[in-house]
Amino acid sequence: MSSSSNVVFALLGALLAAAVVTDLAARRIPNGLVVAVAATGLFLEWIARGLAGVGSGLLAFLITGLLLWGPWAAGRLGGGDMKLAAATAIALGHARLPIFLLGAALAGGFVAVGCYLASSRTSRTEVRANLTQLALAGSLPSPSAASKARSSVPYAIAIAAGAVAALRWGA
pTM score, two decimals? Predict the structure, then answer.
């Protein structure tokens, strides 16, 4: 790997770390940060593999966006999380996408459990009721504005972990 791509990877890591910090602090991921991640990913793909790399990154962006559209539209995933995951996928390309998505999903489970354990008794009761309804009826209730604010999960942590997994074990 060239020194220029090492610098770009370091920049990508710093941007993902900033996304984690802002998500933890405010449960928001600024659009400017998402755009910077996407631009860094496009540049990384360009210097690593040229036009084919850019195409691979854009394909990964499209696939990720399409996969996360449903959960976002149903109110089960934040818009910033969806945009950050799709932007991060650009830097990883389509070949690393399965590892990225699996790593992010697994890490997201751990983050969600941590949030559950740190939440109030009322929130934990609501989560258990929702999971019981899912098991019995096969569906979740629509999230209310109050429950979204009370029990959101800082998913940028999981997205960053998925990126690390993809870079470490991906193609």
Answer: 0.87
Q: How far apart are CA 1 and CA 105, in angstroms?
A: 28
Phi and psi at 74, nearest 5°, equal -85, 0
Contacts of 130 (CB under 8 A, 6+ apart): 140, 141
Tell me the per-residue pLDDT of 3-16, one tens digit each, with 9 for 90 and over: 666 787 899 999 99
For 63-101, letters b (16+ CB in 10 Å) and e give bbbeebeeebeeeebbebbbbbbbbbbbbbbbebbebbb
State how far the Cα of 162 lies from the Cα of 153, in Å rounded to an integer. Answer: 16
In the 3-class helix/strand/coil scheme, how is 54-76 assigned residue by residue?
HHHHHHHHHHHHHHHHHHHHCCC
For the residues 91-106, what does the mean pLDDT come to?
A: 96
List alpha helices for the chain, DSSP H. 3-26, 31-73, 79-118, 121-137, 145-150, 156-169
Query: What is the token pair recorded at 95?
Result: 């070949």
Q: Place 23 in a pLDDT band, splitting at 50, 70 and 90.
A: very high
pLDDT 10s digits, 34-71: 999 999 999 999 998 999 999 999 999 999 999 999 99
